[in-house]
């Protein structure tokens, strides 16, 4: 089992990220979200790999499944985490998490 993203990272200077209205990459359709108590996993139903994720990473994966934009992801994460007004930091974390999901083959490149 592999662990993806632990938590939203602490505040730091965020680079400007253009294209926040761009759609998140598509989630691989054979990957599903599984809950086991308080633990959340992404299960590749074809490859059989299981990845433990935190709720934030699971939400980002679910937004990829729904075809949300980066802008919508930032709004939803800000609301869920109570981090309104920290859009640049949240966007940076969304980009980093999506990159991890892509590197693990859970989202399309």
Walk me through the structure:
With 109 residues, this protein is α+β, with helices and mostly antiparallel strands. The protein has one domain (24-103). Helices cover 38% and strands 17% of the residues. The protein has helices at residues 55-66, 70-81, 87-103; strands spanning 2-3, 31-36, 39-44, 50-53. A 4-stranded mixed β-sheet has the order 1-4-3-2. A hairpin with a 2-residue loop joins strand 2 and strand 3 (39-44). The two termini are 22 Å apart. The model is unreliable at 6-18 (pLDDT under 50).
Q: What is the topology?
A:
Layout: E1 2-3, E2 31-36, E3 39-44, E4 50-53, H1 55-66, H2 70-81, H3 87-103
Helix pairs in contact: 2-3
Question: Could you give a quick summary of the protein structure above?
Answer:
The chain is of the alpha+beta class. The chain has helices at residues 55-66, 70-81, 87-103; strands at 2-3, 31-36, 39-44, 50-53.
């Amino acid at each position: 089992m592999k662990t993806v993203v632990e938590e939203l990272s602490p505040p730091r200077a965020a680079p400007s990220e253009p294209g926040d209205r761009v759609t998140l990459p598509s989630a691989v359709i054979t990957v599903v979200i599984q809950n086991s108590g308080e633990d959340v996993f992404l299960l590749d139903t074809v490859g059989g790999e299981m990845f433990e994720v935190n709720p934030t990473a699971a939400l980002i994966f679910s937004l990829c499944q729904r075809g949300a934009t980066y802008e919508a992801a930032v709004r939803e994460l800000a609301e869920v985490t109570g981090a309104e007004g920290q859009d640049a930091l949240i966007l940076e974390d969304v980009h980093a998490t999506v990159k991890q999901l892509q590197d693990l083959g859970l989202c399309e490149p």
